[in-house]
Design goal:
By secondary structure, this protein is of the alpha/beta class. It has a domain of 210 residues: NAD(P)-binding Rossmann-like Domain (Rossmann fold, 3-Layer(aba) Sandwich), CATH 3.40.50.720. It contains 12 helices and 14 strands. The protein has a 7-stranded parallel sheet, sandwiched between helices. Helix 1 crosses helix 7. It is globular.
């Protein structure tokens, strides 16, 4: 039986990927750092490996005899300090790569992020050749640095690939949807610039299918954008996404310039007074949710054999089931 090792198994993507791996007949070992995470990955059919990404012993135990590593673990907090993000994304990935090579792992599939090209400007139809010199947030900078480590580690004996999804959404979303619902509840929900810009999205089921394809297909040392295969107007998508929960989104808006000013002021206050959590609006949020962001997944369709497994319409219908 083929063995694979997964990090971030109790996260949104991991909870959807583990059942697919089990269905393929794989023996799945999943790193889990909390009692809740241990129970979650076990309930999905995986063998729990207690520990975190800084624990070399846990990584050694989990990777032993694995042919493939799926590295999904990442921060979901764009406002975390650069040091925290660097430790979680870059240092942890370096350690995991080291242990994977020691254990003669054949394939290393990294869950990257489309935001590694976000530069605070509208982006239209970017492919993998697009490079930004001015990444505007620590999350994207550290995800890019980690991805570079992964791709540079590629060799004839050790295939490494990065999958770059945009905004990940779908049934069971524990991140974006709850944040929007909370903002609506607090009366803080406003679209930036009217929300009329277009974006691409990545349904969690499409992301998982792309990860599976990367295990056997594609070319090592490469990154691949993946999308749901269509462009959507941000405001329309968010209204329909939230609408699956029977909630209406207020039709309020703030200009992009005002949003950036408010975000800068809020970041200053939060950092100056060392307030807990993150402000209602910060620069990374403005750049992520307030600007056109279109990437092309033509390379993934051509080289991985990727296709849209779940359309936006189908994904929204699944939210209601």
């Amino acid at each position: 039986m083929k063995k694979v090792f997964i990090t971030g198994g109790s996260g949104f993507v991991g909870q959807n990927l583990i059942p697919l791996l089990v269905e393929k007949g794989y023996s799945v070992s999943a790193l889990a750092r909390s009692p809740q995470a241990i129970e979650k990955v076990k309930s999905l059919g995986a063998i729990a490996v207690p520990g975190d990404l800084e624990c070399r012993e846990a990584l050694t135990n989990g990777i032993k005899d694995a042919e493939t590593v799926f590295h999904l673990a990442a921060s979901v907090d764009f406002f975390a300090s650069e040091k925290t993000l660097y430790n979680l994304h870059v240092k942890a990935t370096a350690l995991l790569l080291e242990e994977a090579k020691k254990s003669a792992v054949k394939t290393f599939v990294y869950l990257g992020a489309a935001s590694v090209i976000m530069n605070g400007q509208p982006i239209g139809n970017a492919d993998e050749h697009f490079v930004s010199d001015n990444l505007t947030d620590g999350y994207s900078r550290t995800k890019l640095a980690a991805e570079k480590l992964v791709l540079q580690a590629n060799s004839a004996q050790f295939k490494t690939i990065s999958i770059r999804p945009p905004l990940i959404w779908g049934k069971g979303d524990p991140n974006i949807l709850p944040a929007i619902l909370d903002a609506i509840k607090k009366g803080q929900m406003q679209f930036i610039g009217g929300g009329l810009h277009k974006i691409v999205t990545g349904n969690v089921k499409n992301v998982c299918e792309a990860l599976l394809l990367a295990e056997d297909g594609g070319f090592g040392g490469n990154a691949y954008f993946i999308t749901d295969g269509e462009k959507v107007v941000f405001k329309d998508f968010i209204k329909r996404y939230v609408g699956t929960q029977g909630i209406a989104v207020p039709d309020k808006s703030v200009s992009i310039g005002t949003a950036k000013l408010i975000a800068s002021l809020m970041e200053f206050v939060w950092k100056t007074f060392q307030l807990k959590g993150h402000p209602p609006l910060y620069k990374a949020m403005v750049n992520t949710l307030g600007l056109e962001f279109i990437t092309s997944d033509a390379k993934a369709r051509r080289e991985l054999g990727y296709k849209t497994f779940v359309t936006v319409e189908q994904g929204l219908s699944l939210m209601k089931s």
